[in-house]
Structure formats: C-alpha cells, structure tokens
Amino acid sequence: MNKTDFAIELARRTNMPRVRAMEVTSVMLSIMSEKLDEKEEIHFDGLGTFQVRYSPERPARNFHTGEPVMIPARYKVIFKASPHLLEEIKGKQETK
C-alpha cells in the first residue's frame, strides 16, 4: 500500500472526499517526518512506536572484494510493533 492507496482507503472508510483524505494523509506524514527529524518518538496505541536511533560507525566487509570497510555512523528510523498488532498478525497467519 502506498500513500495514495492509503488516502483512498481513508476516504472510503470515513466518507471523506478523496482530495481531503489525500491532504490529511500528506499532513500526517509531514508531521511524522518533522517529529522524527527532531528525534521525537511517535507512539500509536495498538499499532506501535516509531523512534530514531543512532547507529555508530562499524566495520564490515565488501561483498565483492572481501576488503574490510567502515560503515559510517548514521541515524535510522526503527518501528516496533505493539503487542496487540503482533497478536492480530499472528492470529491471521494461523487461520490461513
């Protein structure tokens, strides 16, 4: 599912015009991006938590040459699913 698909589904479930649903989706994603850029944690009950974590520089190997290389330090976005979401997914997999 992409951003447009999400907005269409939002419009369908809420009887909101598609244009308005696309605006709401864009604003929501913009707010999330801003808050993650500020290193804030975003928590949605029943869904999970988005957080930014620092990953320090670390050694690795070039797959093609086998040479040692250093992977630079960076920040990365992590999503941790809530126990409720994990149970829902697990339950649906077991019924297949």
UniProtKB/TrEMBL annotation:
<dbReference type="InterPro" id="IPR000119">
    <property type="entry name" value="Hist_DNA-bd"/>
</dbReference>
<dbReference type="GO" id="GO:0003677">
    <property type="term" value="F:DNA binding"/>
</dbReference>
<keyword id="KW-0226">DNA condensation</keyword>
<dbReference type="Pfam" id="PF00216">
    <property type="entry name" value="Bac_DNA_binding"/>
</dbReference>
<comment type="similarity">
    <text>Belongs to the bacterial histone-like protein family.</text>
</comment>
<keyword id="KW-0238">DNA-binding</keyword>
<dbReference type="GO" id="GO:0030527">
    <property type="term" value="F:structural constituent of chromatin"/>
</dbReference>
<dbReference type="InterPro" id="IPR010992">
    <property type="entry name" value="IHF-like_DNA-bd_dom_sf"/>
</dbReference>
<protein>
    <submittedName>
        <fullName>Integration host factor subunit alpha</fullName>
    </submittedName>
</protein>
<dbReference type="GO" id="GO:0030261">
    <property type="term" value="P:chromosome condensation"/>
</dbReference>
